Amino acid sequence: MSDDLxxxxxxxxxIAFIKYWGxxxxxxRLPASGSLSMNLAGLHTTTVLRWSEDLIGDSLTxxxxxxxxxxxxxxxxxxxxxxxxxxxxxxxxxxxSNNFPMGxxxxxxxxxxxxxxxxxxxxxxxxxxxxxxSALARRGSGSxxxxxxxxxxxxxxxxxxxxxxxETIAGPxxxxxxxxxAVVSREHKRVDSTAGHATAASSVxxxxxxxxxxxxxxxxxxxxxxxxxxxxAAVVEEDSNLMHAIMMTSRPALxxxxxxxxxxxxxxxxxxxxxxxxxCYTLDAGPNVHCICASSDAQVVKSRLKAxxxxxxxxxxxxxxxxxxxxxx
Amino acid sequence: MSDDLxxxxxxxxxIAFIKYWGxxxxxxRLPASGSLSMNLAGLHTTTVLRWSEDLIGDSLTxxxxxxxxxxxxxxxxxxxxxxxxxxxxxxxxxxxSNNFPMGxxxxxxxxxxxxxxxxxxxxxxxxxxxxxxSALARRGSGSxxxxxxxxxxxxxxxxxxxxxxxETIAGPxxxxxxxxxAVVSREHKRVDSTAGHATAASSVxxxxxxxxxxxxxxxxxxxxxxxxxxxxAAVVEEDSNLMHAIMMTSRPALxxxxxxxxxxxxxxxxxxxxxxxxxCYTLDAGPNVHCICASSDAQVVKSRLKAxxxxxxxxxxxxxxxxxxxxxx
Lengths: 329, 329
Hints:
Chain A has helices at about 70-85, 110-120, 130-140, 195-200, 205-210, 215-225, 230-250, 260-275, 300-305, and strands at about 5-20, 25, 30, 35-50, 60, 65, 90-100, 150-155, 165-170, 175-185, 280, 290-295, 315-320, 325. Chain A is an alpha+beta fold. Chain A folds into two domains: about 5-175, Ribosomal Protein S5, domain 2, CATH 3.30.230; about 175-320, Alpha-Beta Plaits. In chain A, the strands form three sheets. In chain A, strands 1, 4, 5, 6, 7, 8, 9 and 14 form an eight-stranded mixed β-sheet that branches. A four-stranded antiparallel β-sheet of chain A has the order 11-12-10-13. Chain A has a two-stranded antiparallel sheet with strand order 2-3. In chain A, helix 1 (about 70-85) packs parallel to helix 2, helix 1 (about 70-85) packs antiparallel against helix 3 and helix 6 runs antiparallel to helix 7 (about 230-250). Chain A is globular and about 65 Å long. Chains A and B meet through helix 5, helix 7 and helix 8 of A and helix 5, helix 7 and helix 8 of B.
């Protein structure tokens, strides 16, 4: 074995057009339904990982700060999955950094676990298929499965670890959509997504949402393949509203929206319906509003968002690549 | 026949604890589910009605102003139902007034059609049962059925005109609950309730909501009968969230909440969960937040609401009586 079992990988956050909310199997993170997303070129995590037999434990820094214990525990749990798959008992030293401001409520778990999964295998010189990487990344964070392949990505529900992975439906250059993110809160989520997924089934509406998700997946996929913005906007907003409807009717009720989120959602709809801008909104498990728009409308959307009370920051991202290795810094 | 076929009646607005949203029959206003409400002593409509063979058409003033054409049309349509039931062809002159400020988004159709129905029968000297009055009032506005009987009221779904009526489950003195209404907008609703009901079935979630409403009716009824605030709060907030979940996932999506509505909902929940106040929220098809609370907590709720940005006014109402005749002014 080489003395230097290290590698560096980069993976990109993604924004779901058709949402993942609720698991069929919490331990394996098998989702209750399929989902569909766009990778975000502008928001990425870079992870340098070194395996060593000499380390007494895993260690993790995020943006050069020693990570919180809960973050290290979750990372170590994922490394256990990787160690089992790779047949090693080494511990890992991990340095991870996000290019987007911390604490903006932009989820970093998708890009973080995708980058970690790729770096962990590459550091051992093991080259896995994209499909297997995607399934493995899923074990760390469900949506990380979607940050492995490039561009516009569908994650298949699957009935087992192996069959629940994500695949590109169109490359990043297929359609020049942009995600203009209105950052409305720097607070950390009160209920993290892992805990949130576990409450989804407590909503009396969740099964009705799941029964109809295949229709929305088909519509969203068709809209992307045909580059039909109007159709995409309708299904993306409906699916976001459906997920938040589940959240706010769960027991206990989860409200991720802030007052400013609602103001932005209403504004976005007006801009599309009244002003003809190609823009629609979608929100993940947080208060930030992702405004998906045609690149030609992105600048006007950005400046209008900045004028709304409660918008602290605006991030900009085009469709992004899949996870890839980079030269160690 | 007497020369003076007139009568004056008063009826009270009501706030639904278990909501009415969606019809099984739009023309007859047969609801898709049962509902449950509290009459509001502080918010009433007083209606003076005079039948005459000499009038060439129906006329309506609201707060001494000649009513808008759409309001007169809806009133005349209801008078047609009354004329058929009463076997007359007279036209009616109606003077209606609300004691609550117009344009606060407080629905006046429940109290208005309940008062109108009672005045229309009494003016002819006809005395109908409370059950028949309730069913008739329903034809003008669904929730008006609940403003006929006093106190805490259940409206039965029914399968026909006659069997869809409301009945008292507990009198107004049974429990000293108060509705403190945070008025957040003076704008008129963009989508009125009648049109809104017609969209309910377009949400993929509506049938799941309807399948579970009997459980919530039973819980709410039990909580009222046992005066258990904690149980009432849980089911009232859940049912409000469920109705708004349907609204925002309808096609087109209906958002009745304003940013301030959301801020108030979140505050109310904190006040209950963190500060131990007996208060919960519920919203009808509008942005105002009805804060249902124990009378002992009403003053502190009122003053806290006034301190929230976007709250224009606060109304106060105890549990109210049923529709009744009054001496003509």
